[in-house]
Q: What sequence folds into this?
């Protein structure tokens, strides 16, 4: 039987995809690259915001026309099963916590889903980048977040199993390890461990590779901050911190149920920057959260101007089903959200371009990770800056590069 698989959304979904591929391969299923060639279609969905949900529903409607057997996984399979069934009544649903039951659905076995460590299963890595889940779920319910409801409470995986997954990825030719979770800062809070200790152990694995640490909530990062900051000293770890602030106003953060303050966020950033001067800072901002007024939005702009992150991911508030924020009064009009988003995006784009320009003339050791447009290649510096290289190189190589140009979302390098 041939299977086609598509994964959307976060790195956790991509990690689930390599797990499913590994199980399929072990059971002698053929994985194909074109849905037309498949007997079964597997879709790992994302529903983090409304526009993404609509894209998923459009995709499901399109695949319904094929008449093929369809398995829907990802967050929508967990939290929006009725919505899926309204479009695909004959589809099989595979919530993300139970990805390892894929064969049961393919073979129409009657079984009760049971939770197991995803790290205990074989993985099939097709690319140089290996997404590896270190935990499932989250114990902190941000009022706007549907993902916590979809993926459940925190379940950290054993360090030894994570290390085995990393070793397997390296054996399969991967050179960038992306450690992922709904919140990597939460890792270990349920098993008397922490992210810093995990990073130290993973870095003990021999080989030339790099590790990208996924997003961490400031609230959980604070719990083991010294251990995490210290673990970043290993040269295998990208000097890259994804720390979503979401708002520059403490009252809005309280309504979001984020459990930290702006001063907490700034303290974490300062601690990392003091230790690692060249670290790349990425953050997320939600514009137009219910009741956000002009002054509170200005606080967000002021925070960005003060902290000067390298990357700001901006999202207009999207009321998700079953969340506390959906029931909140004080919705912001769409035109106001668009204007705030436009103003913040314009400033952040200019900021990112200027910060990238500061790298012109510098030299880095770049890991080549994928092909780019017009016969170019994309790599990553030690601090995870994306570098476009127009010379002919090999994916997986570590190369010495000098930066010669910059844009808002990437820098340009040449071999030296």
A:
């Amino acid at each position: 039987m041939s299977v086609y698989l598509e994964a959307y959304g976060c790195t956790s979904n991509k990690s689930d995809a390599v797990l499913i591929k590994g199980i399929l391969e072990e059971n002698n299923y053929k994985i194909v690259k074109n849905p037309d060639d498949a007997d079964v279609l597997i879709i790992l969905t994302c529903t983090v915001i409304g526009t993404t949900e609509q894209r998923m529903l459009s995709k499901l409607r399109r695949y319904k026309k094929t008449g093929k057997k369809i398995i829907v996984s990802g967050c929508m399979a967990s939290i929006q099963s009725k919505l899926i069934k309204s479009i695909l009544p004959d589809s099989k649903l595979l919530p993300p916590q139970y990805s390892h039951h894929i064969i049961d659905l393919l073979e129409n076995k009657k079984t009760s889903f049971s939770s197991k460590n995803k790290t205990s299963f074989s993985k099939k890595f097709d690319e140089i980048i290996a997404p590896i889940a270190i935990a499932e779920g989250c114990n902190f319910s941000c009022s706007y977040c549907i993902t916590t409801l979809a993926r459940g409470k925190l379940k950290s995986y054993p360090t030894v199993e994570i290390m085995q997954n990393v070793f397997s990825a390296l054996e399969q030719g991967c050179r960038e390890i992306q450690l992922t979770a709904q919140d990597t800062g939460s890792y270990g809070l349920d098993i008397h461990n922490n992210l810093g200790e995990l990073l130290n152990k993973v870095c003990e694995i021999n080989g030339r590779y790099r590790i990208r640490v996924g997003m961490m909530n400031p609230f959980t990062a604070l719990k083991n901050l010294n251990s995490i900051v210290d673990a970043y000293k290993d040269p295998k770890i990208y000097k890259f911190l994804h720390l979503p602030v979401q708002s520059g106003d403490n009252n809005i953060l309280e309504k979001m149920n984020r459990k930290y303050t702006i001063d907490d966020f700034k303290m974490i950033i300062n601690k990392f920057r003091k230790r690692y001067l060249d670290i790349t800072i990425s953050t997320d901002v939600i514009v137009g959260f219910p009741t956000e007024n002009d002054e509170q939005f200005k606080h967000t702009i002021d925070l960005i101007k003060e902290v000067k992150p390298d990357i700001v991911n901006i999202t207009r508030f999207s009321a998700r089903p079953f969340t506390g924020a959906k029931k909140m009064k004080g919705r912001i009009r769409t035109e106001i959200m668009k204007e705030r988003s436009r103003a913040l995006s314009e400033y952040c784009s200019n900021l990112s371009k200027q910060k990238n320009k500061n790298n012109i003339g510098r030299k880095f050791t770049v890991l080549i990770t994928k092909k780019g447009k017009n016969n170019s290649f994309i790599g990553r510096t030690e601090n995870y800056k994306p570098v476009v290289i127009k010379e002919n190189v090999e994916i997986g190589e570590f190369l010495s590069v000098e930066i010669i140009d910059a844009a808002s979302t990437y820098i340009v390098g040449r071999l030296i």
User: Anything to note?
Assistant: The longest strand covers residues 363-371.
